[in-house]
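Input structure tokens:
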């Protein structure tokens, strides 16, 4: 008597193979998602530089009017009368923060011609990397010590008085 169909062992082997292949594909997708998030951070912050220069040309400084207020170093916020009050620029900073690894730091100064900088923790290597852009045109990857905290990210975007990438 000849039976049609598969044995239980054959079915279990096929299911195991499908499971292994699915885990490999999912691991690759997670890596691609993280890389995509990092690209979003970099693109948003690149747009931030362009918008800040438009504000500089329009207002003669990095702010939303001719007499802007400095933004104290720290967690990014859409604070009135600072460069970060501009809706377009704030949307770009907020977009980078949302796509990134969870930490963002902003600073702007108004002395002289002013300066600004934004640093955002990257997602793919969240414990060791952040992306920084500033008013001098820099856009670069910064290295974190492996246990990122807000104070560490803050230190990367200032020399104490001027907002700039380290």
């Amino acid at each position: 008597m000849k039976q049609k169909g598969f044995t239980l062992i054959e079915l279990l082997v096929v299911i195991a193979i499908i499971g292994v292949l699915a885990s490999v594909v999912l691991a690759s997708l997670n890596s691609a998602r993280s890389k995509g998030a990092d690209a979003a951070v970099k693109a948003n912050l690149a747009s931030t530089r362009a918008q800040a220069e438009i504000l500089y040309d329009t207002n003669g400084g990095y702010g939303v009017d001719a007499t802007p207020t400095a933004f104290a170093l720290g967690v990014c916020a859409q604070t009135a009368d600072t460069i970060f009050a501009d809706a377009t620029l704030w949307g770009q900073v907020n977009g980078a923060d949302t796509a990134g690894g969870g930490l963002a730091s902003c600073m702007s100064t108004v002395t002289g011609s002013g300066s600004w900088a934004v640093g955002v923790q990257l997602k793919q290597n969240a414990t060791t990397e952040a992306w920084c852009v500033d008013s001098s045109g820099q856009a670069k990857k910064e290295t974190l010590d492996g246990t990122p905290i807000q104070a560490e990210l803050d230190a990367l975007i200032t020399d104490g008085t001027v907002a700039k990438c380290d």
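The radius of gyration is 23 Å. DSSP finds three helices and five strands in the chain.
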